[in-house]
Design a protein that fits this description.
Length: 245
């Protein structure tokens, strides 16, 4: 695993955006695995700037997102489809028909099965962007005794619901279930790039970047099995996580 320590979160986001832009330039019809949450917003902002400046072209890019909440429609402001449209897709020259976010309404099992197909359609992602939960989850693969390999329905932990409550009016409004890629789906990507910041992530990042333990109680640790995984953290988080200490 490659760990990059930057001087700031902004620098981390610039580095991640640069990796994505480099890939798109090298392979214009690439497939990107994308993530939602607070962390990637500045990454997407940088990609929008580059697209507007004409330095990166998304015309032939395909995307698949990691996950979606169950029970909220695509046009709900907290759906991940809405997030992707408003934070990225509406502002770049991508063909939205080539973007996939699992449906959060209807038959959840069928939606998960469709996500599983989309993960592999035309080959796995060339690059999968990831955030990390305070409990070490990646996508919505929650920490616990077992993990799933394939796309599935996940019951969200209290830690995740509390962390995501900031996006909703009240905690009770946060969906308690989500459709998510499984661990095997994430590990199938050719390249994985995880970005994290903030003291709440320190324990999860400690498990990921120090030692060689792999545990379902910190799902991110499975990334240690990936041949091309990069973790980008700022110095403050690296120090809090005991990296390089
Ligand atoms: P965040 O979420 O970027 O909003 O911190 C990350 C995650 O839960 O994977």
């Amino acid at each position: 695993m490659n760990v990059i320590v930057t001087e700031s979160y902004e620098e981390s986001c610039a580095a991640a955006a640069q990796m994505i832009a480099d890939l798109v330039r090298e392979k214009p019809a690439c497939k990107l695995g994308l993530a939602t949450g607070g962390t990637p917003v500045p990454i997407y902002r940088k990609l929008i700037e580059m697209n507007r400046a004409g330095t990166v072209d998304f015309a032939r890019v395909r995307t698949v997102n990691l996950d979606e909440y169950c029970g909220i429609p695509a046009d709900h402001p907290q759906s991940y489809r809405y997030f992707m449209d408003t934070n990225l897709f509406d502002h770049i020259n991508i063909d939205k028909a080539n973007t996939f976010v699992a449906a959060g309404m209807g038959d959840y099992q069928a939606n998960a099965a469709q996500l599983e197909r989309m993960v592999y359609e035309g080959g796995p992602a060339d690059l999968q962007l990831l955030g990390i939960g305070n409990n070490g989850h990646i996508a919505f693969n929650e920490a616990g005794d077992t993990l799933h390999a394939k796309a599935h329905i996940e019951h969200l932990t209290d830690s995740t619901i509390s962390a995501n409550a900031r996006f909703f009016e009240k905690k009770e409004d946060v969906p308690t279930m989500a459709i998510t890629m499984g661990m095997g789906d994430i590990l199938a990507a050719r390249k994985v790039v995880l970005v994290a910041t903030g003291p709440a992530k320190a324990e999860a990042i400690r498990g990921l970047v120090t030692g060689d333990t792999i545990t379902p109680h910190n799902p991110s640790t499975l990334l240690k099995l990936h041949p091309d995984a990069t973790v980008i953290i700022d110095r403050a988080l690296a120090e809090a996580a005991g990296y390089g200490a």
